[in-house]
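tool=predict chain=A
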Amino acid sequence: LNARAALLAGVKAAMASMQDSSELSDWNLPLSFMKNRHKEKIEGVEKGETSWRMKDRMKTVSVALVLCLNIGVDPPDVMKTSPCARMECWIDPMSTSPRKALEQIGVNLQKQYERWQPRARYKPLLDPTVEDVKKLCMSLRRNAKAERVLFHYNGHGVPKPTANGEIWFFNKNYTQYIPLSLYDLQNWMGNPSIYIYDCSHAGQIIESFQHCSYQRESELMLMNSYSRMSCSVEFVNWRKTNIQLAACSKNEVLPMKPELPADLFTSCLTSPIKASLRWFCLRKISKKLVPSIDLELVEKIPGRLNDRRSALGELNWIFTAITDTIAWVTLPRELFQELFRQDLLVASLFRNFLLAERIMRSYSCTPLSQPQLPPTYHHPLWGSWDMALDHCLSQLKDIIEGTATYQPNDFFAYQLKAFQVWLVRGLELKRKPPEQLPIVLQVLLSQLHRLQALELLSKFLDLGPEAVHMALSVGIFPYMLKLLQSKSRELQPVLVFIWAKILAIDGTCQVDLVKDGSHKYFLSVLADNEMQCEYRTMAAFVLSTIIRHYSEGQKMCMQGGLISICLEQLDDSNPVLRQWLAICLACVWEGCDDARWHGVRDNAHEKLYKLLWDEIPEVRTSGVFALGTYVANNTDIRSEQVTSINLSVGTRLLPLMFDGSPLVRQEVIAALHGIILQHDYQFQMAALRISDTDLPALSTSITPTGWINIHRVDNPGSHDQASNKINGYSNSPGNKLSSNKNTGVANRPSGFTTSYSSSSGESVLDSLPRKGNATQTFVPQPLKTHRSSGCSTSALPSGIPHTTYSNIWKAVVNLAEDPCPDVAKMASSIISDLRNKASDSSQLKPSAENAGSYSAPSSPTHRAKSRNSSSEQSPPPQPEPMPRQSLQAVTLPHSLRFPRSMQNVMSRDEDDDSSDSDSDSDEEAKRLASMTTQFCSWCCKYFAHSITKQPDDIDPCSPGYLQREWRFIRNAECRKQATALKYLTAKSKFSDQLFVNKNEQSPNILRFHPYEPHLAVVSKSSVSIWDLEQGAKIRSFPVSGKFAVKITAVDYINPHDVTFLLTGSDDGVVKVWRHYADPVNKPQLVASWRAIHDMLPTNKSAGMVLCWEQATGLLYSSGDVQRISLWDTHKEMKIQDIPTGADSCVTCLASDSARKSLLVAGCGDGSVRLFDRRQPTNCCLVSSLKEHTGWIANAHVQEGSNGFIISSSVTGDVKYWDPRFTQSVKTLSTSLQITACDVHRYAPLLACASRSQSIKIYSTDSDELVNSIRYHDGFMGQKIGPTRCLAFHPHKAWLAAGGTDGLIAVYSLEKKR
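tool=predict ok
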């Protein structure tokens, strides 16, 4: 609390110092990569044991009512007062003859028990002999079998129990008391049983019973030790399987007040309301509250116990709620489940036992139980019970006289209000679980308060898994199951919400829902278009949980029209609903062939294709998941229709291998794996063809424009042969390299990294001349893919004939090099498994069901016929044996070479194969056969946690919100100070060296954090983070994976809040890192994807060039390609490809944050190209500025609507451009061979560096030289080395420089402190 108060005080002080609060614009900036898919691992909720569900539900089926009263004769060891308590079962035995009274008492006792368990078999035994008890007990146990038997013992007419473990009965003539050993009684009663002892010194019986149980258990253990050679006797824990209730402890005598019944303990257990009313009237306080009430009037309370609208029924209702609540709050959860939820009669007896403890203790008696319960007589809720009794008795006289009607009690209304207060304040105060939860369940029985109770219960369940487990342990499940039979429309939303919460935690409830036909309730909600989409989403989730991995649920829901209902709503505007509709379809198709054929008849796969291009990554993933289960057919039938659908779906999934979301790509590889398993033989052949394809011998040469020509050398000395043309491009000296103007298509998927097919369906490698020698210029071609027709099979890389099998297999090979480790691991496992299968034998024989061609059955019922007809067809000709050869190592520039995964995985030595054991192969096969993702389970986790709770970062009372507020105030103050830099003059010199240190490797890129004192230093394939205040390195970590890559771009994502580090490498991969500056936690990969897949080889590589826009969440990527790709990081998909129209690579990118439409690209040929993103793709290029003569080193767009575009080239000229004109406004000649250049965001400063060991800083306003930096700080400061990179701080007058000698220096206008 002190820390939070200090933080709040600091925030208020900072806000007071701010003059203009409107500058706090950071609240409106969107955050990227902050969704749940980025912040947590893709896995489901850990499934614990369902402790709320009783493993062995029991029932008390037989009851022995043993009454030893001997009316008229008192036992010799009991001294009774005069007068004393005489009533037994509310009957005075002296009012009639002893025999008749005894029979009437037995009848009354049976009726009192029947109120709690009417279906049990009752057998009264009046003043019995030992033999009678034996016969009855053995008969009841024989009929009860494994169920529970109750033994009720009333020993008011016999001596007290003995210390030897004996209770007393009579002989036939009632002249003697005959003892019965508890050991024998245990033998006759068996297990499980419940014993009730209503007699003085009853605690002695429990003690003796326990001693006998120990003795019996010891005997069983001894018998088992001696019977090793024969069958052992099953061990039974007699102490845990038997329940005992005693009226008092072993040294206590039952109360004898004449106003009380002699069997007060039995009365409390069997007629608690009547006993409680009598006891309440006998208390002194009640005489003051209700002086007109006497015991005779109490007997006239109107109503029935089972009528909750009557006075007596309402008292019973309230009593049940109070005793349940006291037990739930006081007892351990397991004990509560055992005593109050396992057996209906036992639960009633223990509720009433709590009252018996309260009443008996007031008369100096302590009831005992086994298992032992903690004391509950002092619980505060007993005060509410007294108030309910007082409320009823205060109206009783007027009700009997007929002058008034009964006014219901407000007990439940008050308890609901208390529960509501707990929901509002309980969590904030970190209080104990709400005591009102069992009472809320009782309120559900009332139609008056039912809706309010359900709404409060739904809010409680929304607190998280712990709340759901708590509610289930109380006993919510049967109530909720019963309410699904209600036809009330107003209850549908809240009931769907509650069931979504229950099933998110415990999916085993699916059996109960299907058994009772309750799945129809959720089908009706899902099909109701007038229902809010949020609740239809929950209904879809409930149905998907019901049918997931449960064949009976799939069958019943399919018969209810689930597939048609889901397909009809796939166009809904709510993305979460679309997601769960697809998941629901996936669950109903998984392992259910009938459901798949139902989907085929509804053309389900065609309707699901539109989800593959959805803007929400989760929706795209769910669409892939649904299609994956749709084609994962486990049957042996391989008809033409099945094969056609499988390959069609596989082809449609291929473009998604370049999706921006790892979630989508991982599901794609899982779906492709299902197709590969079904067509195992064809993919083995494809794998062998790819591994055995001979690549042509190639050589390279450089063109004048910087591109690489590829030569096929079949016969040395014949390079003068005529050149071939590729796709209309000529490589003759008179023709320059030009690109297709139609390369950019919005939302079009990318191609592969190996080679690219032309518009004629011919790949680049296929286009290479097979005979003679020729020179060809490598030209990237667009991937011919359209949404309406799917992915063209010709638009895939190939060194072999184009078939769908090879295309799918090449997609898997490419995914083995995916930047996401999980995706690459799955793909590598598939490749390794199939390669092992393909190389096991020199000749593969196709099976009839895999290689044959069959006609599609019209419905699932025609499968047998199709199977029989297929057996008559002759199998296709077997292919010739293909020898296993290793792939020759061919060095190709960049994307022309085969993927490393293909070389590494497909060309393993035979020695490695022979070392694999059969057991390892079997285990690998089993693992691959069950290769699935955790996407569905992870989606279910959404409902397991709070849905309505306000996130911490927008909750004004949370510490996270206060931290954000502090950061935003700091940022605003920093930006405010930065505006003063606009007025710097040429006299301001960078003469102060703030920081100097040596990096392990030469830095290539420097990047200041806008608000933190951090400097990111990029060296080849690693990133180092330096703390400028401490002058120390915080962390250094590698960015590349298995293969060495060069980092060519770096930036900060969400720098105003929780910052991530963005890196781009020369292989076209973009990665986003968290904890990059955390000295404790290792950097974690948040997201990764291949932004550019076809980097072109050049003599001077620009690698990948990135430009990040925080306000829009757009990432511009380019480099050694002829286009600029726009990625929407919120959608995690490419939204546009803009062709550059240049014959060279893109060296730098800049965007105008003010205009929101201008994009500037500097190119390797010296041109500066301006693009308007608002225009169509082919018309985005609005201007090409060609005054530079060399490689563009930097391009910058000045702040403000009238800002210039400043560009600099390696030849040393800096030009200022007005976007409205094609000629430069002015030119600055630096007389340097520029190696690095940067422009300050606010200050009119431009810094240039060269290999001549100097850094020059110019004023962009006057073009004057501000100063030059040649030496490091100090009297003997050494001369700076050749500078490779420069970077201005965005909001401070700081300049960072990195040299080839590894030294990093930061210069400033300020003096060191």
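The longest strand covers residues 60-67. The first helix runs from residue 2 to 17.
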